[in-house]
Design goal:
single chain; alpha/beta; Trna Endonuclease, Chain: A, domain 1; 5-stranded mixed beta sheet; about 10% strand
Length: about 180
């Protein structure tokens, strides 16, 4: 390899590295700016938003925390089998925007939905989670603990909005949450 070819390869490598760093920084800034808007959106939506708005909110929250969020269905009219979104192809999430506490139905739905989607397009699904803008019944907490479904309630959402984006917040159980 000649000196000229080697110099060209080095220059191309530096150029690609610079572009990659710029792209990564742009994404980080975009997610940071989005994350800063989320607490106000949550408070407004919590009072008078609907289920679709809560799903949109969670999608932005998960993306700001570093997750790739995918809708398991191809259209709005397709059944989701209890799964509203899938994180990195690994975690099935059911979003529940309720004023009252969330019961066992949501736990059973996301667990069954995780197993359905694992066999139908998302073979790497390993976990299921229910995220609510309210809280969970004692019975739902017990069932979730028994079958390994992650639960995130209003307090967890407020905690992540206060502390800043972290990818692992969905998989970490808050002490005393069960």
């Amino acid at each position: 390899m000649t000196q000229s070819n080697l110099e060209t390869i080095v220059i191309i490598g530096i150029f690609i590295s610079t572009i990659t760093m710029f792209y990564a920084m742009t994404l980080s800034i975009k997610h940071f700016v989005t994350f800063r808007k989320l607490p106000r959106w949550f408070n407004k939506m919590r009072k008078n938003g609907d289920g679709k708005e809560f799903e949109d909110f969670l999608k932005k929250l998960f993306e700001a925390c570093g997750w790739h969020v995918k809708n398991p269905t191809s259209s709005v009219n397709s059944p989701d089998f209890g799964v509203d979104m899938i994180l990195d192809g690994k975690i099935a999430v059911q979003a529940k925007h309720y004023k009252d506490n969330v019961g066992n139905d949501a736990i059973m739905a996301v667990f069954a939905g995780m197993n359905y989607w694992k066999k139908n397009g998302f073979p790497h699904l390993r976990r299921a989670a229910v995220v609510t803008s309210s809280h969970f019944t004692a019975s739902a907490k017990k069932q979730a603990k028994d079958i390994g479904v992650l639960l995130k309630d209003e307090d967890d959402i407020r905690e992540i909005l206060k502390s800043g984006p972290r990818k692992n917040w969905i998989t970490k159980q808050r002490s005393g949450a069960w």
